[in-house]
Amino acid sequence: MKTIANFLVLVLLATTFSCGKLKLPEFGNSKKSEDPNIEYKREYWPDGETLKTEIPFLGKNKHGKAFNYYRNGQVRIELEYDNGVKIGEGKQFYDNGNIYQVTPYINGLVE
Fold first, then answer.
1. DSSP class of residue 16?
2. For 17-57, what is each residue's pLDDT tens digit?
3. CA distances (Å), 100 to each of 7, 51, 76, 103, 104, in order?
């Protein structure tokens, strides 16, 4: 298990360094939130500038709207969490911004 974890770290670093820029996942609350306790985990594409993933956390749990982006900056996936549980409509998009699929969630389960 430890070997797999080390391998994944190396893959992440190799991907990050492929453009000569280092942009590791970061935590912070620079994005406006109604709750000052919300922190956002952000990951970037290898260019170091284009956002790949943005997930709000309340403590150790995902809490709020999380996004995954295509390289072109368009939203790929939008999910909402309430204290670690998926709620509302999960949305998947094509890279041109059109909706591909909508999945309703109630208490973490597909409706």
1. H
2. 444 444 445 555 555 556 789 999 999 999 999 999 999 99
3. 33, 21, 9, 10, 14
Higher pLDDT, 12 or 39: 39
Most distant CA atoms of the chain, gap in Å: 44
The CA distance from 24 to 17, in Å, is 10
CB 55 within 8 A of CB 72: no
Interior angle at CA 83, CA 80 and CA 86, nearest 5: 35
Rounded to whole angstroms, the Cα distance separating 18 from 37 reads: 34
Look at residues 62, 92, 66, 98 and name the one whose alpha carbon lies nearest to residue 79: 66
Q: What is the 3-state secondary structure (H, E, C) of 17-35?
A: HCCCCCCCCEEECCCCCCC
Per DSSP, the chain holds a count of helices (H) and strands (E) of: 1, 9
